[in-house]
Design brief:
Elements (H helix, E strand, L loop, with lengths): L1 E4 L4 H12 L1 E10 L5 E11 L19 E2 L6 H12 L19 H11 L29 H35 L7 H8 L4 H38 L62 E3 L8 H5 L3 H15 L3 E3 L27 H13 L3 E6 L8 E2 L5 E3 L41 H18 L3 E4 L7 H11 L3 E4 L7 E2 L2 E2 L4 H13 L5 E3 L1 H12 L24 E3 L20 H8 L5 E5 H5 L4 H14 L6 E7 L4 E6 L19 E6 L6 H4 L6 E7 L2 E6 H11 L1
Parallel strand pairs: 5-6, 5-16, 6-7, 7-10, 10-11, 11-14, 14-15, 15-16
Antiparallel strand pairs: 1-3, 2-3, 3-4, 8-9, 12-13, 17-18, 18-19, 19-21, 20-21
Helix pairs in contact: 1-2, 1-3, 4-6, 8-9, 10-11
Length: 728
């Protein structure tokens, strides 16, 4: 029984904690007080009598049925502490002017660590990044080329910054006085009364101080954006063209010819040869060979699962693979060309991100037979199935003589040599890791030849036998991108992209305007793979949700007049998204503003990069119609991952752009020169009025073909009439 305040997401956390503890929830009921503020949750749970001798997995190796029994009374206190620990937030909530920073290792990872602690594997807990709340502020305009307008805007923003500075100085004086003389040292009676009304005056002062610092940083970011806009306007007026070196694009040469092959991979001690033009490798699909890591540049990906999909069998009586099989026609009809599927292997965690036997494809998402049927069904509709590849770490199913989990079973029967040596809890005898340490499980040593050969053989089997045609690599920060490049070079998938989740740059809890360093880190990782693997565009997600959530659309243009995310730096290697199973779903590690979901999709489905739509959004009736309309426009006009973008406006309340095929791409594949002789579109997000007809964009007549609350897309009337006449 759990009694406590009514908070969003608490029930999911409790169920997750019970599951990770190794219990089966048989039934439950919930009661609330008349005010609805207090919730009383009662769960009837059992424990498998044989669970102590094996992993937290609902399958039994010998095929026998589980024997449910009552939880021993001796474990009650341990279970109580486990649930309390799962419900305790790692950090206090951030203040109103601070940004919503991601919890990259949030509730899920913490629950996994807690579960593994009970097996004696892990002795320390992951730290979670601080979170915050969204709010709106600022009314900055940053893009007009009129010098008088720019001057007036700079004056406004400077005044706002001065006001924020004065407020910060005032509270800093109060803070300094309290530090010196205590709360009685406040010189202003009104201020003293104001603070003493709170239960903890010192905490109230500290909170106001942090709030003022965050507002100051936010106004500082705004004036940085305004100055960048002024510089762009001056360049336009004086017609000065600055040739900027591409050194900020990568550390090495960029793709020589994206229409033929990829960038020359870096050598791996002579083991990796330069990538040759791709040839068919028992292709399960009659699709064109890829010209980028994301197919032919026209790919649209559906993430075909969420964090709770693994529980579909328990809650709905059918496996997740059966759900996807039934939805294949709708997925194809909507215009998706690829589907990112969940981790296919047996795993300690239900979601599949703590894999054990890589060749065992019986998971909580369904059986191996159902998986193969699902892949075959997708192929029937010409949808590319992409496997979620988790090879940074692997959970062992046996212990060594010292009781450490580093002995592997199954077809890939590794021992401690396959484990990196940093974490003594796992007793790895391999080399030091080549990336960040993932604490919940033994990290794989990719420097070992036998490890890489086994993984390449396994990936080939997934492609040639099982039928996958693409890879999504999980937690690629854990090992060198050179190894990812080697695996991709060896297996030649149609799509290949990695999860390089790096926290954006913040200053005093506020997202900085300039995120060049952040997207450069993503670019460097892609470069380390030899350019044969794309990466999720976390930079665009961070900037986009900050801009929309706080009505700061001026964030959506960088100092050079291009999109500020990774898609504005190397679009053919950027996989854009606004939400996934980690950031949203039931985890909510870094959620997109719920009221701006369709505005977010209006941006990524019209802009360069390879867009990914989250399953929950596509299935939600509030968003489905709008998303499907945007997908139709993208396919009809032929917007690709290398589309040209000319940003027409980026003010506090509105962002607008003209997009289409490029006249000439630079070596990164990005361009701001739209070819107006070809089909193109205009789009806008935000509440402010804007129309391409009023602004006379490209001197064309435009028709609005898709729109909703705060978003709209226009198409070239001449092109639409041509399409209409051809269809007749």
């Amino acid at each position: 029984r759990v009694l406590g305040p009514n908070k969003r997401g608490e029930l999911a956390k409790i169920v997750s904690a019970l599951t990770n503890y190794g219990l089966d929830v048989q039934s439950s009921f919930t009661r609330s007080t008349s005010s609805g503020r207090t919730i009383d949750d009662v769960f009837y749970v059992t424990v498998d009598a044989d669970s102590g001798s094996r992993s937290f997995d609902d399958t039994v190796n010998d095929g026998s049925e589980k024997v449910p029994t009552q939880v021993p009374e001796s474990q009650f206190e341990d279970l109580r502490q486990f649930i309390l620990q799962a419900l305790t937030p790692p950090h206090p909530s951030a203040l109103m002017y601070t940004s919503r920073q991601p919890k990259i290792y949030g509730v899920a990872a913490e629950a996994e660590v807690l579960a593994l602690k009970r097996r004696g594997v892990v002795n320390k807990q992951l730290a979670a990044a601080a979170g915050g709340a969204f709010s709106s502020s600022s009314s900055l305009s940053v893009t007009s080329a009129d010098p008088l307008f720019m001057a007036s805007q700079l004056e406004i923003v400077a005044a706002e910054l001065a006001s924020a500075t004065a407020k910060l100085v005032q509270i800093e004086r109060v803070y300094a006085d309290v530090e010196t003389c205590g709360i009685d040292g406040l010189w202003d009676t009104d201020e003293r009364n104001e603070y003493e009304q709170s239960q903890d005056p010192c905490a109230a002062i500290e909170a106001e101080r942090a709030d003022a610092r965050a507002m100051f940083e936010r106004k500082l970011a705004a004036i940085e954006a305004a100055l960048a806009a002024r510089d762009r306007a001056r360049k336009d007026i004086t017609s000065v063209i600055e040739k900027v070196p591409m050194s900020t694009i990568s550390k090495s040469q960029r793709p020589v010819d994206e229409h033929n092959t990829l960038a020359k991979p870096k050598s791996m001690a002579g083991r990796i040869e330069p990538m040759a033009p791709q040839t068919p490798l028992m292709s399960p699909l009659s699709r064109p060979l890829p010209s980028t890591p994301c197919g032919n540049g026209k790919e649209i990906i559906l993430q075909g699962f969420n964090w709770e999909s693994c529980n579909e069998k328990v809650t709905k009586g059918r496996t997740w693979y059966e759900v996807l099989i039934s939805q294949a026609p709708d997925i194809a009809k909507a215009g998706f060309t690829s589907i990112w599927m969940p981790p296919p292997t047996k795993s300690v965690s239900k979601q599949g991100y703590l894999p054990t036997d890589l060749y065992d494809l019986n998971s909580f998402y369904g059986t191996e037979e159902e998986l193969r049927s699902c892949i075959a069904r997708m192929r029937e509709y010409n949808i590319t199935p992409v496997a979620d590849i988790v090879i940074n770490h692997r959970c062992a199913e046996a212990q060594d003589d010292a009781g450490r989990w580093n002995q592997y079973t199954g077809k890939i029967a590794w021992d401690s040599r396959a484990v990196t040596c940093e974490n003594p809890d796992f007793g790895g005898k391999g080399a030091r890791g080549t990336g960040e340490d993932y604490l919940p499980a033994p990290n794989i040593d990719h420097t070992q030849d036998f490890v890489r050969e086994d993984l390449k053989t396994w990936l080939k089997w997934l492609r040639e036998d099982v039928g996958f045609r693409g890879w999504r690599f999980d937690f690629v920060k854990g090992y060198s991108g050179t190894f990812t490049g080697e695996y991709v070079e060896e297996t030649r998938p149609f799509l290949s992209f990695g999860e390089f989740w790096d926290a954006c740059d913040y200053r005093d809890g506020v997202l900085e305007y300039n995120q060049d360093r952040h997207r450069q880190r993503t670019c460097d990782w892609v470069d380390s793979t030899g350019g044969n693997t794309a990466a999720f565009d976390f930079t665009t997600k961070g900037i986009l949700q900050e801009a929309l959530g706080r009505t700061e659309y001026w964030r959506l243009i960088d100092s050079k007049g291009k999109p500020p995310g990774f898609c504005g730096m190397w679009p053919s290697r950027a996989v854009t998204f606004i939400e996934n199973h980690d950031t949203g779903s039931t985890l909510q590690h870094w959620p997109f503003p719920s009221s701006k979901i369709l505005q977010g999709y209006c941006y990524i489905l019209t802009h360069p990069g390879t867009p990914t739509v989250f399953y929950d959004h596509w299935q939600d009736e509030k968003y489905a119609e709008g998303i499907n309309a945007m997908l139709e426009v993208r396919k009809r006009v032929g917007i690709t991952s290398r589309a040209a973008v000319h940003i027409e406006q980026a003010t506090a309340g509105c962002y607008a752009a003209h997009l289409g095929r490029s006249i000439e791409e630079d070596e990164s594949g990005s361009s701001s020169d739209v070819d107006i002789s070809k089909p193109s579109i205009c789009m806008k997000i935000g509440k402010e009025d804007w129309s391409p007809n009023t602004e006379k964009v490209a001197n064309k007549s435009w028709k609005c073909t898709a729109s909703g609350d705060g978003w709209a897309i226009w198409e070239d009337r001449d092109f639409l009439e041509t399409v209409s006449s051809q269809s007749r």
